[in-house]
Specification:
It is a single chain. With 173 residues, this protein is an alpha+beta fold. The chain is built from five helices and nine strands. It has a domain at 79-147: Rna Polymerase Beta Subunit, Chain: C, domain 4, CATH 2.30.150. It has helices at 12-19, 37-40, 100-103, 156-159, 169-172; strands spanning 21-23, 64-66, 72-73, 79-87, 90-99, 108-109, 126-129, 135-138, 145-147. The strands form two sheets. Strands 3, 4, 5, 6, 7, 8 and 9 form a seven-stranded mixed beta sheet that branches. A two-stranded antiparallel ribbon has the order 1-2. It starts with 11 loop residues before the first helix and ends with a helix. It is an enzyme of class 2 (transferase). It catalyses: RNA(n) + a ribonucleoside 5'-triphosphate = RNA(n+1) + diphosphate. This is DNA-directed RNA polymerase.
């Protein structure tokens, strides 16, 4: 069928990647011929849910994606990604999973933000994704959540590439 494939068992990584693959094709989905650029392109709601790097080349580009490292589906089938809760400028150990719709209502700090030994932000202003995915500088007391990892954006396979942020984009693919 269009939604079922034989398992890729060449090595453990290819098996895990195969199991975490998401397709927009098939019954009730899109067709390669009718899918436009806006469907295939990376969208802000993919952050922490779908890997922006790992997608096949050719006619399936952007239609077949991989789940990000920490992404999961909720009871309704929506993709969620985890965040650490921030209370009064202090990052807690509480982890909450948010869907893209829920995430748009909060100010979220990057995982590499500077923290002291009590998990408080050390900077006067912190670079964050604000409400509706607008980036900007925010005071620590205005922050609601913090990313749990700098690698939560990419898939399992892409996360294994050392120094990915310094690698050529074409080589990462």
């Amino acid at each position: 069928s269009q939604l079922s494939q034989f398992m890729d068992q060449n090595n453990p990584l290819s098996e895990v990647t195969h199991k975490r693959r998401i397709s927009a094709l098939g019954p009730g989905g899109l067709t390669r011929e009718r899918a436009g650029f806006e469907v295939r392109d990376v969208h802000p709601t993919h952050y922490g849910r779908l890997c922006p790097i790992e997608t096949p080349e050719g006619p399936n580009i952007g239609l077949i994606n991989s789940l990000s490292v920490y992404a999961r589906t909720n009871n309704y089938g929506f993709l969620e990604t985890p965040f650490r809760k921030v209370v009064n400028g202090q990052v807690t150990e509480d982890i909450e999973y948010l869907s893209a719709i829920e995430e748009g209502n909060y100010v979220i700090a990057q995982a590499n933000s500077n923290l002291d030994e009590e998990f408080r932000f050390t900077d006067t202003y912190v670079t964050c994704r604000g409400e509706h995915s607008e980036s900007g500088l925010y005071k620590p007391e205005d922050i609601h959540y913090m990313d749990i990892s700098t690698q939560q954006v990419v898939s399992v396979a892409a996360a294994l590439i050392p120094f990915l942020e310094h690698d050529d984009a074409n080589r990462a693919l």
